[in-house]
Amino acid sequence: MQEIVQQIKGKQTARKKFPFLLKEGIIFPPQLNLEQSSSESTAHYKSEILKGNKFIDLTSGFGIDAYYLSQNFNEVTLVEQNPELLNIVEHNWGILNRKASFINQNLEDFLSANKEYFDAIYLDPARRDQNKNKVFLLEDLSPDILQIREKLLSTADQVVVKLSPLIDLKYLISVLPGIFRIEIIAVKNDVKEAVIFLSEEKREGIMVNCTNLESGESVFTFTFGDEENAGAVYAEPEKFIYIPNNSILKAGVFNLLSERFGLKKLHPNTHIYTSDQKVSNFPGRIFEMESIESKQVKKKEQFNIISKNYPLKPDEIKKKYGIKDGGESYLIFTQSKKGKIILKSV
Ligand SMILES: C[S@@+](CC[C@H](N)C(=O)[O-])C[C@H]1O[C@@H](n2cnc3c(N)ncnc32)[C@H](O)[C@@H]1O
């Protein structure tokens, strides 16, 4: 009975997360392994970045990342400490007609005995602590990348590590030398992954790509040096209001947006931009809005409420003004250089 339930749950997850596995004969692992897997869309995006001869995934898990990321390689190796999980992956890859070496070993043991050199190593460490609210450090992951960094870099041209978007990028760069690229990947504006690329080769600057998949697809590319050298222009709200995609906000790129798109920022701590002329290629949401007084907010009217750099959260605003959630119109509660403001869509 338990086995049947596991397979039904697996199919349900696959429908949303990895539909390529909805095939006769595919076996699904327990829920935790499904939850730990990447989605087909983020794995597919990452696969377009990597290519070479030999690929190894040291934390195979259910093998979703490995399946996509290894597509542009000739030889593929999967390492996984959990024997039942690796057996399932080997079985499924047989059904999918994909060849690989499946190694059931602790990756630290594998690395110390290994003499092969790879073009790319991929790791998607599992979190030891499931407490989602805690700020987490690299030491909280299994494996701890800090412990094996040197070994990894002497085993491959590039090392690619998937991390939770909750990780602090400044902290990451300060503790992990050799990062030359970061991908911040969001799906439908929900930031899912921060993927870092490491190499022993010295490279100038860290390239950051902020991507949004599945809705208004966009990529915004910059280096931290670009952001440091950029200066924002400030203004009170004009006709068009811009809210950047969450992958961009996560990367902490604020002044450069003002410079690159010729937009004015409302306040140093308000990451909302404005212009008189519409800039259609902006990577984020664009509204046409006007400033209103708080007494113009009518009770029982329906609005989508956005609160940014404002003392009250949307729920508190709803309560205070007696407004209903939803509908087509937006209210933005925020701050410009002059102080607290309310913007209403026109
Ligand atoms: C987050 S999951 C990987 C999911 C995978 N990227 C996917 O898309 O399906 C991490 C996996 O790494 C494995 N793992 C963690 N530490 C390991 C270690 N030291 N040696 C080998 N495998 C390890 C865990 O058993 C788990 O299956």
UniProtKB/TrEMBL annotation:
Ranges for domain PG-1098 ferredoxin-like: 240-283
InterPro entries named in the record: PG_1098_Fer, SAM-dependent_MTases_sf, Thump-like
SUPFAM superfamilies, per the entry: S-adenosyl-L-methionine-dependent methyltransferases (SSF53335)
Residue span, THUMP-like domain: 292-338
Domain of life: Bacteria
Pfam families: Cons_hypoth95, PG_1098_Fer, Thump_like
Protein's name according to its UniProt entry: THUMP-like domain-containing protein
Source organism of this protein record: Chryseobacterium shigense
